[in-house]
Design goal:
This protein is of the alpha+beta class. The chain has helices at 4-13, 24-42, 65-68, 75-85, 143-152, 211-228, 234-238, 242-253; strands at 15-18, 55-57, 90-98, 103-106, 117-123, 135-136, 167-168, 176-180, 185-187, 195-202.
């Protein structure tokens, strides 16, 4: 559970890094399962090399339900999402990512003011700034600041690594990062092999409370479904704890979640 200070940190700066949330022993099990799952997803192909596209598996958790499903039933991981997004937040897609290099400054999904989507990120390796740990620009989830950065970040006379305000999130296995998708971030190293698990979520919205927010939510869920396919397998739904089920029900109610093409391994029986 997050402290009030951590909640303020997230709301003010757009992220909060929870150190040591998972134990070394737990991380070893998750790390081994990740490698096996990504190998299975490659279906005999070699690991991607530097300069090639990263391997991104979405949805990911069906590759090892016994290891990955429990992450979504673990109060240490889920309760902060509840605290930050509300009891009725919506789980969208899980990701397994094997990076082949770095990334420039960017933000992800950008909801209207008053609503946001986010991720819980579990990095499986010790990462420093030199190794390509995630960098953020604190406060860049705020609209005016974000808009100014988006318009000018490539024209301020400094390289990406020297952007004022750059904050490297030095990471140890077991840390969990909670980050607003609106926050500008980067990984400024070409070192390959960084491994990450992402749990992506969005706040809920209803037409009755806010039409703009509801229209954005419907567009967001539709875009994620068109891009990634079916979010939840039958097994994922069938085995859900009451808390996990609550994360799934709203997307299903709106016509998403258990619809769309199957893009990766899923148990659909």
């Amino acid at each position: 559970m997050l402290t009030q200070e951590q909640i303020r940190h997230f709301r003010t700066l757009g992220f909060v890094l929870c150190k040591g949330l998972l134990s070394k022993e737990e991380m070893q099990v998750i790390s081994d399962a990740f490698d096996t799952a990504m190998e299975k997803a490659r279906d005999g192909a070699p690991k991607p090399k530097p300069g090639e596209a990263r391997q991104q598996v979405v949805p990911f958790f069906d590759y090892d339900p016994e290891t990955f499903y429990p992450l979504l039933d673990d109060a240490r991981i889920v309760e902060p999402l509840v605290q930050l997004m509300g009891e009725d937040f919506i789980l969208t897609v899980s990701e397994g990512i094997l990076h082949t290099g770095g990334s420039g400054w960017h933000h992800d999904a950008c909801a209207p003011e008053g609503i946001f989507s986010m991720r819980a990120a579990i990095y499986l390796d010790r990462l420093s700034a030199a190794d390509g740990c995630l960098n953020v620009i604190p406060g860049s989830h705020m609209k005016e600041y974000r808009d100014a950065i988006a318009s000018n970040i490539n024209n301020v006379g400094v390289g990406p690594e020297d952007i004022p305000g750059r904050y490297p999130l030095v990471n140890e296995p077991g840390d969990v990062l909670y980050m607003n998708h609106k926050t500008f971030h980067s990984a400024l190293s070409d070192k390959p092999g960084r491994r990450a698990i992402h749990i992506n979520c969005t706040q809920n919205a209803t037409r009755e409370k806010n039409t703009e927010h509801f229209d954005w939510l419907m567009g967001f869920l539709n875009g994620e479904t068109n891009g990634w396919g079916r979010f939840y397998s039958d097994r994922f739904i069938r085995t859900a704890s009451p808390r996990r089920k609550k994360m799934l029900d709203r997307a299903i109610e709106l016509g998403f979640g258990n619809t769309g093409r199957v893009t990766h391994l899923q148990d659909l029986t």
